[in-house]
Design goal:
Helix content: 40-55%
Radius of gyration: 33 Å
Number of domains: 4
Shape: elongated
CATH class of the largest domain: Alpha Beta
Distance between the termini: 108 Å
Strand content: 5-15%
CATH topology of the largest domain: Rossmann fold
CATH superfamily of the largest domain: P-loop containing nucleotide triphosphate hydrolases
Number of strands: 18
Length: 458
């Protein structure tokens, strides 16, 4: 029997269930203790380190939820799995709000509880590795990772999280504004996963599809399931078996699809549209959103139990203006990319352009910067991108030196013309017909020039 590191406490007032769980976990190699009440459990917890508590909800005096709250209040660094015989969604959601890792319903499935404990061990391992890796951040700085550009501390933290979670089974939630690079992080996780990188990586922009089409894309459909279903179709979850599926804009899921996704996350099963055959998938699920899902939960637009299921590991993508030190490197990357794509030999950008980009707030983040660089490379006439090559220059609130020089030259040319027109008008006593004839232009042209130079008739 292989001895395992996790120390587990089983809490249940029913001896048969308590002793059954004890034997199941002890045979698997865990160090297991038992308690019949919450008070007895707390005494054990205060005396020594317990990694995982498996507790029944219905206990005498203090129930399992109150025990959970006491464990979190005392900051005992112990994960809690709650067992309920009622199957109440409200109880389950409340337990996860209070910090439970997961919940299971009676009758207890041995494999289910072993799987949850295994996930906790993986999570604890990730946390430990993250703590160890943080010590290297100050000494080790990468300017890029799997195609992601950035050497700032915030990006170093993202890289280390990717490395830590890549080869686990954990569901990952990537949050951040549009254009921050959530899709690239999802792909980096797929590329870094030694177990899945040779298997399919499937990406779906959920917000771009209607509910019916999205359901069909995810789960597949049978011939005749709806209008236009002319043959059986395999869904993305089937195709991604053994690989990774990336669901972008998860916040766009309808309530019905949220229920079906929750089932896939919990049990790994689903049915095609129009079919009653249950199919399985072991695809690793990564989701992304540019919304605050906790706000959507409060508004009743996103299921609370689903939110806790997908938020096992969270990666928050920083705004571009929060890592201005990365802009020069990102710009160099895009200059090289679009210079090659357009058959040019652009060596870089001018100092003025660097200053321009550093001073802008980039509401569209990296995507906006990429578009600006692409347009500037296309417009550039020399080997260096200058400020006047940058599209929509006025939005930067900066006037480049060339534009200023052109304005000065234009003003220098126009000033003598204005003075000459005024002089002729005065000689002709402001008779515009005579003045136009004297100037050798027609009367309409004279009117336009007077309007342009703001010359008012006396």
């Amino acid at each position: 029997m292989l001895k395992k590191d996790s120390r587990i406490l089983v809490v249940d007032d029913e001896p048969l269930i308590r002793e059954s769980l004890y034997e199941i976990l002890r045979i698997d190699g865990y160090r297991v203790q038992m308690a019949s009440t919450a008070e007895e459990a707390l005494n054990i917890l205060f005396k020594g380190k317990i990694d995982i508590v498996v507790t029944d909800f219905k206990l005498p005096e203090m129930n399992g939820l109150e025990l959970l709250m006491e464990i979190k209040k005392k900051e005992l660094n112990t994960e809690v799995i709650l067992i309920t015989g009622y199957g109440s969604i409200e109880t389950a959601v409340e337990s996860m709000k209070q910090g439970a890792y997961d919940y299971i319903t009676k009758p207890i499935n041995d494999n289910e509880i072993k799987l949850i404990i295994s996930k906790i061990e993986q999570r604890n391992k990730i946390i430990k590795e993250n703590e160890e890796l943080r010590g290297f951040i100050a000494r080790e700085s990468r300017s890029s990772f799997c195609g992601i550009i950035g050497a700032s501390p915030k990006m170093q933290s993202v890289y280390h999280t990717i490395e830590s979670v890549a080869s686990t089974n954990a569901t990952i939630l990537i949050s951040g504004d549009s254009g921050t690079g959530k899709g690239m992080v999802a792909k980096a996780i797929g590329e870094s996963d030694v177990n899945r990188k040779t298997k399919p990586f499937v990406e779906i922009s959920c917000g771009a599809l209607s509910e019916t089409l999205l359901e069909s894309e995810l789960f597949g459909h049978m011939k005749g399931a709806f209008t236009g279903a002319i043959k059986d179709k395999e869904g993305r979850f089937e195709y991604a078996k053994g690989g990774t599926i990336f669901l972008d804009e998860i916040d766009s899921f309808s309530p019905a699809l949220q229920v079906k996704l929750l089932r896939v996350l919990q049990d790994g099963v689903f049915e095609r549209v129009g079919d009653n055959v249950t199919r399985r998938t072991d695809a690793r699920i990564i989701v992304a959103t540019n919304q605050d899902l906790s706000d959507l939960v409060d508004e009743g637009k996103f299921r609370e139990d689903l939110y806790y299921r997908i938020n096992v590991i969270s990666i928050q993508m920083p705004l571009l203006r929060e890592r201005l030190e990365d802009i020069d490197g990102i710009v160099e990357h895009f200059v090289a990319k679009y210079s090659k794509a357009n058959g040019k030999k652009i060596k870089g950008v001018s100092r003025e352009v660097r200053k321009l980009f550093q001073g802008y707030h980039w509401p569209g983040n990296i995507r906006e910067l990429e578009n600006a660089v692409e347009g500037a490379v296309i417009m550039a006439k020399t080997e260096v991108v200058n400020a006047w090559d940058v599209p929509n220059l006025n939005k930067f609130n900066v006037v480049p030196e060339k534009v200023l020089n052109e304005k000065r030259l234009k003003k220098a040319v126009e000033q003598p013309e204005r003075e000459h027109i005024i002089s002729v008008l005065e000689e002709c006593h402001w008779n515009r017909m005579k003045a136009a004839a004297s100037l050798g232009i027609n009367r309409t042209t004279l009117y336009n020039k007077m309007k342009k130079y703001k010359i008012n008739a006396k």
